[in-house]
Design goal:
86 residues; mainly alpha; elongated; membrane; DUF5985; transmembrane helix; transmembrane
């Protein structure tokens, strides 16, 4: 059951990334671009979670790379919010 939840979280983050990127390509609103990058990082974090929990198991701990990717994703969104002038 946990595998399904992990996979659905990764899929949801990827879907949000695609939708935000499509909207950015249509409108060129910078905040959509930064939000899309953030959700790409969130999707990548969830993919790393799937790999950590289901593929490598207890042999390797990917907690630190997951947290670094999540931090970079959130910092990208914070940067976009600060940089946005409108």
């Amino acid at each position: 059951m946990a595998a399904i939840v992990y996979f659905l979280c990764a899929l949801t983050g990827l879907a949000a990334f695609v939708l935000l990127l499509r909207s950015w390509l249509h409108t060129r609103a910078r905040l959509l671009f930064w939000s899309a990058l953030c959700f790409f990082g969130i999707a990548l974090t969830n993919v790393l979670l799937v790999v950590d929990k289901l593929v490598v198991g207890a042999a390797t701990d990917l907690r630190t790379p997951r947290l670094v990717v999540a931090l970079v994703a959130v910092l990208l969104l914070v940067f976009g919010l600060i940089w946005e002038e409108d």
